[in-house]
């Protein structure tokens, strides 16, 4: 499902948003972004009725880099690298040791561990393997037999997720839980398995539109204090957000455009060094029609649950570098709220284990100064309100903002 932003504008689907061909690390991407260049991207998963879809958005205007990068401190791989992620969000490089981030995905990626090894070796991250106990892959029932089918799109999603966790938290352990299919029931069974395995940080880079029946699912699968459930807000812009991100018990991960900026910038990010963020135009945002408002949300124009809570890199125009042997094998550039979801789940792990009686999705609201307040960008048309327009303070597209270190993701 190919997507070119300017074509969608001409069809009236989204407002025109300046996008760019990603500059290599070290270039002034902010200036290029404002020049209005256009990128093409596509969903790596094909949605089908009654199933969840993954939310990775692959750049299609940059060919895969198939040769092995030289062993250097700055390999010539397009997209943002682990050092970029750590710099942009001021993350500790050695935190998270012994904590496990669970990735819930669908179908089997038989090359998950070997692709992860290439990624981590290229960027000089410590090995994360089955042999050293850092990486573990199980099925939705907790066994070692993989699901019977492999889907190239979902295999790509899996690679993105485990590599994004590695970029944000190189010392974290990774538990990959593969559901048999992408039916909601199987995916939720895999979520339960991740929780049963003891993970306090569960990343869900997928979703489907909300409906009233999901209220009952919340009580069965997500009403568990002390666990940081993080889900992708969606790639549909205003009112295009997804469940389970809409759940009152889940941290809804919105998306931003992450630019390099070597000159002063205005507004709340004026003191930020080297980076600038704005709301990604396709990040899911808005007011739920069915989910009750959690007590920590106090925004005035939505009596129900508002999406999102926090945000991070998601725009494929300024996307994340990843390696996969599926969907045009090699190094590619990717975005979507899949990326922000895995990054934020890893940042929760960096921050420390949640309190056993806590709702971790409430933490950002109690520590707003620990986030970069994003006040530029829009996800659609909503009369100029904060539900689709980034502004100073809380807003739907970016929530309370993007992490400024990890203090905002702990008690």
Automatic annotation (TrEMBL):
Keywords noted in UniProt: Signal
InterPro entries: Peptidase_S8/S53_dom, Peptidase_S8/S53_dom_sf, Sedolisin_dom, Tripeptidyl-peptidase_I
Occurrences of domain Peptidase S53 (ranges): 79-411
Stated name of the protein: S8 family serine peptidase
Annotated signal sequence range: 1-23
Region (Disordered): 63-83
One Pfam family, short name: Peptidase_S8
CDD domains registered for this protein in UniProt: Peptidases_S53
């Amino acid at each position: 499902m190919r997507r070119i932003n300017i074509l969608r504008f001409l069809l009236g689907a989204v407002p025109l948003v300046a996008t760019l061909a990603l500059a290599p690390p070290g270039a002034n991407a902010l200036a290029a972004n404002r020049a209005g260049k256009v990128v093409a991207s596509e969903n790596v998963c094909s949605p089908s009725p009654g199933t969840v879809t993954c939310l990775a958005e692959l750049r299609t205007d940059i060919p895969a880099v198939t040769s092995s990068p030289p062993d250097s401190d700055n390999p010539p791989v397009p997209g943002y690298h682990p050092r970029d992620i750590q710099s942009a969000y001021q993350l500790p490089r050695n935190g998270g040791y012994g904590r496990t981030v669970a990735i819930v995905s669908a179908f089997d990626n038989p090359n998950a561990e070997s692709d992860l090894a290439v990624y981590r070796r290229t960027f000089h991250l410590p090995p994360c393997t089955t042999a050293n106990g850092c990486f573990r892959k199980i099925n939705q029932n907790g066994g070692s037999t993989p699901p019977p089918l492999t889907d190239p799109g979902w295999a790509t999603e899996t690679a993105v997720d485990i590599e994004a966790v590695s970029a944000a938290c190189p010392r974290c352990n990774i538990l990959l839980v593969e559901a048999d299919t992408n039916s909601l029931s199987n995916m939720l069974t895999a979520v339960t398995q991740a929780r049963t395995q003891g993970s306090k940080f569960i990343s869900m880079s997928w979703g489907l539109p909300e409906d009233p029946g999901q209220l009952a699912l919340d009580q069965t699968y997500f009403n568990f204090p002390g666990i940081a459930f993080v889900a992708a807000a969606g790639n549909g812009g205003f009112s295009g957000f997804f469940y389970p991100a809409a759940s009152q018990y889940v941290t809804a991960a919105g998306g931003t455009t992450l630019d390099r900026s070597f000159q002063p910038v205005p507004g709340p990010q004026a003191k930020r060094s080297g980076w600038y963020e704005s709301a990604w135009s396709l990040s899911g945002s808005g007011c739920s029609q069915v989910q009750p408002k959690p007590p920590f949300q106090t925004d005035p124009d939505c009596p129900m649950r508002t999406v999102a809570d926090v945000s991070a890199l998601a725009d494929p125009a300024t996307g994340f570098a990843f390696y996969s042997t599926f969907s045009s094998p090699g190094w590619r550039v990717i975005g979507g709220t899949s990326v922000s979801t895995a990054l934020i789940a890893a940042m929760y792990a960096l921050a420390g284990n949640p309190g056993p009686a806590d709702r971790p999705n409430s933490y950002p609201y109690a520590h707003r100064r620990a986030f970069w307040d994003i006040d530029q960008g829009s996800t659609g048309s909503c009369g100029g309100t904060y539900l689709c327009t980034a502004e100073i303070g809380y807003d739907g597209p970016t929530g309370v903002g993007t992490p400024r270190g990890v203090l905002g993701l702990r008690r």
